[in-house]
Structure to design on (605 residues):
């Protein structure tokens, strides 16, 4: 397969097209705008739907409409815009509609800046909107992973009739890397629930409204069963130099990528460090992380946030191993030397 | 004996179920008109409706064809998503004035301005019905509601929004009219407008909307008959019935 040089945002767009995305609805916001621009050119060429919506809110609700009609639909944005999409994501979850949402995170809170950040972890992985629900959240650290996880996102969304999110950051969106674009034969499952017109069948209704507590409780129990199934089946992570590692660094996305360089340097110094990098943030790869506890003297969580994934790690660890943390705020990407310094500290403290 | 002839029956597009609407509410009349039009056009099996948030939130229980809910005000965006991926379907939104004229103004204006080939049935009863009679953007000056207890003071709360006039200004709109459903003559005219709106969509001519002045006797604190009278005496002068935009291609529809 030929390797091509692609920017992260454009690679995600092309991956979505290959995954059979029928309709894209978006709104410009830095640092994800190239994704929208790519779609604006390619989707009409392929006879597919592209709309630049009047807002993030409108765009996610257009996604809901296209998904309700049984088509593969997608939107993309960056942090402030994804906040606006939370209404629609809650409705997608409540109506059990598959859709893919891309968040190329930037610094917050508020308008923040357009630098890479990971400070939307809570919003992404804990539901984000109102109600008891979880989107599936996938976290790439390279452009190639962004492609592969985008294709997976469409498959998982359809498999579980659930919104799936690509949680990247400004660095993943903007960086250019050589990638391989796989040929995909999209095989969306049958969607007998979709709104297609009620010819030769009973009418279909897409709704999340259940006015009485009993029926809504029953509905929520069904959703929760699905989330347990997702948690049992879809945990994913990757490892780097984890064999024999006693200082286990846990980081995802761009922070995970920088950590890899820091760990290589630490190993050169004889510090037994290794990386556990989650690919799914919901479901969190609890089982695999739990199995690493025994070999570790300490965990070191690195995030481009004030410590959000840290809470999931602590829930897994439950005091069984010391958990250290280092965060970088406001859109700052750590240098490998900073990671190395922190690994040295933790190595000395728990040596 | 001559054979009997059915002259009146329930439209197939309307379910045989009781509705939750209050006595005297005109939602029921408008539901029936839509169902009759859909039957007459023979499009029930390809129609997709979008229910709003508000009193008609449960419309999908009353219509007998595919339907989706939408978040408050977002029905035109949801309809856009459906129509763009299934242009062969007839897609319409059913929205009240809280839904369309307050929280959903961006969605309705831009759907109209894109010339989105969908139909909107807009119920204007000058109040937020489901939440218990608060001020809507369409509440008349001086009108008492639970959130304008001394009457709508336009200096504080602004002026009633004239939706048909507003939408008629968008280039993409093809058919924009205002009707009411208080008397048989108005109901006949209203049904004709609903039919023209759907025919506009079926002919791929662009966005169509029928604003329908409606009553809310419960929240207005009136008997159904008083409410009909109040509407005619107070709402029609502020919101004149009529055709606000009908493009030539729509006029030519038969």
């Amino acid at each position: 397969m030929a390797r091509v040089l692609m920017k992260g945002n454009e690679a995600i767009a092309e991956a979505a097209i290959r995954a059979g995305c029928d309709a894209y609805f978006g709104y410009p916001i830095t640092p994800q705008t190239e994704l929208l621009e790519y779609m604006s050119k390619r989707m009409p060429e392929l006879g597919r739907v592209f709309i630049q919506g009047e807002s993030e809110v409108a765009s996610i609700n257009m996604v809901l409409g296209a998904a309700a009609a049984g088509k593969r639909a997608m939107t993309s944005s960056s942090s402030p815009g994804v906040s606006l999409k939370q209404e629609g994501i809650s409705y997608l979850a409540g109506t059990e509609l598959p859709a893919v949402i891309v968040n190329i995170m930037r610094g917050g809170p508020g308008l923040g800046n357009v630098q890479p950040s990971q400070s939307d972890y809570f919003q992404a992985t804990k539901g984000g909107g109102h109600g008891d629900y979880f989107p599936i959240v996938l976290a790439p650290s390279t452009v190639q992973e962004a492609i592969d996880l985008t294709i997976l996102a469409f498959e998982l969304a359809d498999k579980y009739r659930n919104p799936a999110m690509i949680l990247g950051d400004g660095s993943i969106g903007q960086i250019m890397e050589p990638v391989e674009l796989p040929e995909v034969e999209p095989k969306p499952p049958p969607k007998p629930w979709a709104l297609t017109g009620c010819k030769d069948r009973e009418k279909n209704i897409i709704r999340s409204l259940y006015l009485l507590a009993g029926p809504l409780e029953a509905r929520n129990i069904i959703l929760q069963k699905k989330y347990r199934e997702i948690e049992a089946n879809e945990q994913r992570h990757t490892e780097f130099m984890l064999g024999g590692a006693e200082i286990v660094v846990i980081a995802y996305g761009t922070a995970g990528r920088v950590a890899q360089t820091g760990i290589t340097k630490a190993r050169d110094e004889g510090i037994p460090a290794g990386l556990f990098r989650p690919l799914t943030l919901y479901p969190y790869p609890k089982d695999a992380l739990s199995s690493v506890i025994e070999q570790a003297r300490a965990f070191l969580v690195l995030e481009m946030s004030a410590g959000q994934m840290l809470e999931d790690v602590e829930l897994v660890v439950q005091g069984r191993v010391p958990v250290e943390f280092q965060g970088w705020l406001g859109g700052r990407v750590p240098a490998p030397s900073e990671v190395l310094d922190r690994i040295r500290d933790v190595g000395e403290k728990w040596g | 004996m001559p054979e009997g002839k059915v002259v009146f029956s329930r439209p197939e597009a309307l379910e045989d179920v009781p509705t939750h609407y209050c006595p005297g509410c005109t939602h029921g009349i408008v539901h029936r008109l839509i169902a009759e039009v859909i039957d007459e056009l023979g499009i029930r099996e390809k129609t997709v409706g979008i229910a709003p948030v508000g009193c008609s939130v449960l419309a999908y229980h009353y219509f007998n064809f595919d339907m989706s809910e939408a978040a408050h005000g977002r029905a035109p965006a949801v309809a856009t998503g459906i129509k763009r991926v299934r242009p062969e379907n007839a897609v319409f939104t059913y929205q009240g004035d809280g839904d369309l004229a307050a929280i959903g103004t961006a969605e309705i204006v831009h759907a109209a301005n894109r010339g989105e080939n969908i139909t909107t049935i807009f119920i204007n009863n000058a109040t937020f019905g489901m939440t218990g009679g608060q001020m809507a953007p369409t509440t008349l000056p001086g009108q008492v509601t639970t959130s304008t207890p001394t009457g709508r003071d336009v200096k504080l709360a602004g002026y009633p929004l004239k939706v048909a006039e507003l939408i008629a200004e968008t280039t993409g709109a093809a058919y924009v009219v205002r009707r009411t459903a208080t008397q048989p003559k108005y109901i006949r005219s209203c049904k004709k407008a609903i039919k023209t709106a759907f025919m506009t969509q079926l002919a791929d001519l662009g966005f169509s909307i029928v604003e329908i002045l409606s009553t809310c006797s419960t929240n207005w604190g009136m008997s159904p008959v008083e409410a009909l009278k109040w509407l005619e005496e107070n709402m029609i002068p502020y919101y004149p019935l009529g055709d606000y935009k009908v493009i030539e291609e729509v006029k030519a529809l038969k």
Remarks:
- The mean pLDDT of chain A is 98.
- Residues 213-233 of chain A form the longest helix (21 residues).
- Chain A is about 40% helix and 20% strand.
